[in-house]
């Protein structure tokens, strides 16, 4: 930033020794060092603030692009209807999953409640456990 060569630096030191004097030179150098430190601290704080603003702007841009892509995907692939909203082929509503337990006969419901009370290793195998399903496709 500041292009100061060796000859220019030597000239500044000579002028400083003549103007300030050799006695007060150490105190003047400390003061100059403190000022330079404060300026670096302020410029670092300013730079980090600018970087944060740039990151936020980039993040907002990425979020906007993501939203646009998400909307395009949602338009291309509509959401499937919920099972509770689907209707049976005869026009009546399909039974909801919440009321599926009401359709189970009382004898089977009692057997299920007895199975729940038994320890895991003492439970009877249910009809679903006996079903043999083919392995999933690779």
Structure, described:
The structure is a single chain. This protein has 138 residues and is mainly alpha-helical. The chain has a domain at 46-78. It has helices spanning 6-20, 25-76, 106-117, 127-130. The model has no long low-confidence stretch (mean pLDDT 75). This is Sec-independent protein translocase protein TatB. GO terms for molecular function: protein transmembrane transporter activity.
Give the total of beta strands: 0
The 3D shape can be described as rod-shaped
Which segments are poorly predicted (pLDDT under 50) over 5 or more consecutive residues?
Answer: none
Oligomer: single chain
Q: What portion of the residues fall into strands of 2 or more residues?
A: under 5%
Helical content, roughly? 55-70%
- Category by helix and strand content: mainly alpha
> What is the rounded Rg?
40 Å
């Amino acid at each position: 930033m500041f292009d100061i060569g060796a000859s220019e630096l030597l000239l500044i030191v000579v002028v400083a020794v003549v103007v300030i004097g050799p006695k007060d030179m150490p105190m003047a150098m400390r003061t100059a060092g403190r000022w330079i430190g404060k300026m670096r601290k302020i410029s670092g704080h300013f730079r980090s603030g600018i970087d944060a603003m740039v990151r936020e702007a980039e993040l907002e841009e990425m979020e906007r692009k993501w939203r646009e892509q998400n909307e395009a995907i949602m338009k291309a692939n509509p959401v499937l209807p919920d099972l509770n909203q689907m209707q049976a082929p005869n026009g009546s509503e399909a039974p909801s999953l919440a009321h599926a337990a009401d359709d189970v006969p009382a004898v089977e419901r009692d057997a299920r409640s007895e199975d729940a009370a038994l320890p895991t290793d003492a439970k009877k195998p249910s009809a679903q456990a006996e079903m043999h399903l083919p392995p999933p496709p690779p």
